[in-house]
Amino acid sequence: MRYQPAHAAKSGSVPFMLRGPKSVRTALSAAVAAAIGFVPAVLITSPAEAAIVGYTITDTTVSATEGGNITIEITRAGGAAMLQETVTWAAAGGTATGLEDYDPASGSLVFPADATAPYDDQVKTITIATTDDAMDEVNETFTVTLTKAAETDTATATINDNDAPPGYTLNFDDASPSEADGSVNVTAELDVAAGQTVTIPISSADVTAKAGQDYTAIPDATVLTVLAGETTSDPVTITLTNDPLYEEAEQTLTVSGTADADVTGTDTATLTISDDEEQPSITIDPQTAAEGSPLAFDVHLSGPSEREVTAKWDTADGTGADLTADEADGHGTATAGADYTATAGGTVKFAAMTTNTPGVVTTAISVRTLSDSIDEASPEDMHVTLSSPTIAKLGADIEATGSITDDPADLPPVVTLLPSGNTVTEGSSGKKTQTYTVKLGKASGQEITVDYSTAAGTATDGQDFTAANGSLTFAPGETTKTFTVDIMGDTMYEGASETFDIDLASTEADVTAFPATITITEDDAQPTFTVGAVNMQEGDTGSVAVFPITLSNPADTNVEFDVAVVGGGSATDTGIAAGALDYITPQLLAVVPAGQTKGSLSVVVNGDDVYESNETVSFSLTPTSAVQNTLNLDPKNAVLSLLNDDDAPDLEIISTTAEEGDDVTVRGVVTGSAQDAVQLNVMFKGASVNGSTAASTSDFVDPGTVGVTIPGNTFSGATIAVPGTLDIVDDATAEGAETILVSGSGFGGGSVTDGVITIAASDGGTTPPPSTDKPTLTAAAAFRLGVGTLKLSGKAAAGSTVKLWGTPVGSDVNGTWEPLGTVTADASTGFYSFLPEFTTTGWWFRTTVGDTMSNTIKVNLKQSPDFFVRSSSRGTATLSVFGDPRVAGLSVRLLRAKTGGGWSTVASGTLDANGKFVKTLTGLRSGSSIYFKALVFGDSDVGLLTNYSNGARVTVR
Fold this sequence. Notes:
single chain; mainly beta; Immunoglobulin-like; 7 domains; seven-stranded mixed beta sheet; six-stranded mixed beta sheet; 4 helices; 77 strands; about 5% helix; disordered N terminus
């Protein structure tokens, strides 16, 4: 412990201080003083004690402001010689506390000896330091005791306080309690501790909280007490009221402390009490009343409120949200002004309540209903909606339905149909829309549905009128609705007016006067008719000639005509000769269907490939007696002109080889046929053919121009000989093969296809010498129709061996020939025959008997295509062609018969690797009947001829 030596030397004592809280310092100061022996045996002298003789204390009561020094002077009186004396002193006792309020000190004073006169007073000083603290306290004292032997003397020292009273704040242990907490404590907190007990008067005051309702007020004269040396007072308890009222917001009160001698300043603390009740909700119940009686809706508040509760309410038409769709099924809609008096912005109130008020409060809203004579849905619904609550909140049921039951005496309205004159003229074309008005005899308060429908009488739906049906919905208050029926205007002669019915049905209105009959007035003239002529090419196969029959306007029944052939035409429907059968007698009745203006007479034309002149035939169309009785139509004729479309026959000269000296009969193969004879001219001249050597005039005898007749009805493929013979000159000149060109022309039709007569090399040539017994060779036809065999026959020496040789058309005739078979000629007649197979080409044939060779003939192969047609889906037709023979790459053309005659190409293509061609046509009219055929082209270079298929008819799906 450190101290200042100067202070110790002066005072003879050691000053020191203890610091800390007063209570601690007080305890320590006494303990320390005792420990170091500062405290004398006697701290305070009693008044009976004697003072120290010869010594005086200048002042018996001295003072200093805390923090200053207390100074005491001790005087030893002079006047006589003085010995050295020692006096002890000690500071202790009183209200001040050593080590806290002052430095507890003790010491001794030595007065020196003085034997020299004059003997002056000797003075010694004691200085004690006081403590300057911040604690407000009363003035305090302590005693300084002077001791010399058994004598004592005292002086009282006063420490004057220099601190102001402390300030304070008021505190709650919970400044925001819930009313359910029951109580809250308030205390005061000094800003510094005081050296004395401090009391602070407090009081409570309402802000929004109410004393006696929300809490118990602090009693008058209540103080908060803070003990000396402490900073916190003992608490004062405020009791809180836990009530059932909803108090809207937090309730507040204040606690205030006032000033007195113990403290400075004032303080106010605010206590906020939170409510523990849920905000009450407002709900409304549905209500039902008869029209004319009020609807009284009960409105509920779920709990009491400290303040008045209000809410807005409004009315509206229709069912409220409190009814489900099933519950509202069958209800109508009440209309403001007609069924009830509307309210907008009405107010419902619940008075302010006390804690004694029951938990749920009910009040009422009244809505006036109105009486009328209108038939209405029962019940009709309106609803009340709550909104904008104050203090409370809206509950789950804030929209309540008010159901108004109708007066049973209100009858439903009677339904009528306008116009009342139920007659309409049909017109000549298009649709004439007739509007009908359905009228209610009076307005209804409910939605009314009237179903309308039409039913055919003598009028026909889709022909005279268009059936109509539907529903008309009358909203409450509506009395008229319209619907339309289309009257079909036409030019059809129907003979008399026609009728249909309109029926009305309703479960909400009176429709006992229905159905109503509507009359469509006939305004069309009796029809006349025409029939057109048909000019058409006859074709190669069967086709159909269609004569259009046209009525000036349709009739409502079939218009039928008896059909008969009128004599005098050149076309015939009998006979077996080529081209004799031109048509097939048509059906005996032609019809224009009811309601149509177009009919037809169909005649099957027997197309062929026979060349003939144009031909005609006429058919009479006479209305049947039943038609005549109604329409009085005159008969008319239909003329069919068949135009020849076939080429005149062609004579293809058969090329052959002759020897010098031969008399050659020149033959030709007929292609095509004619109904009448065809005249041709044939000429001969030496000519080079494909590089051959032309025969000279010295190699043959030119017969000049030779007339050739192909008789009528000669079948195609027949062989005809040119009149006379061609004489080949036999000379001695060695020469190679030479050629003679045989050509010609027709007049009045017909043609000649060139042939070549080859004079075989002679006198050293390569051809065997002619034989006197030369075999002959002919073919059963000029061509084979389709793949298969064809009979070849001839004559040779009786019993001789005959060998058949052949080379395909297109090969070099002078090239390699292949053996095709061997037979033995008949032993008596010399007759022989072969059946060679034709597959893809025509053939050149010859026979030999030993070294003797027959004439050479050419047999072509002609297409015989198969043709099929089908319709497997709507508007389509699939055409299939199979070549015969099935040669890939051949061109195909698909043909369609035209109305009025002729053919049109509808598709083309080529045979595929399987010899097949398939085409599907689309966009065809459903229900139509169409006649098709196919044309498969050949290849003339290999002797394959072009040909048509059979025709086929299909009805389009």
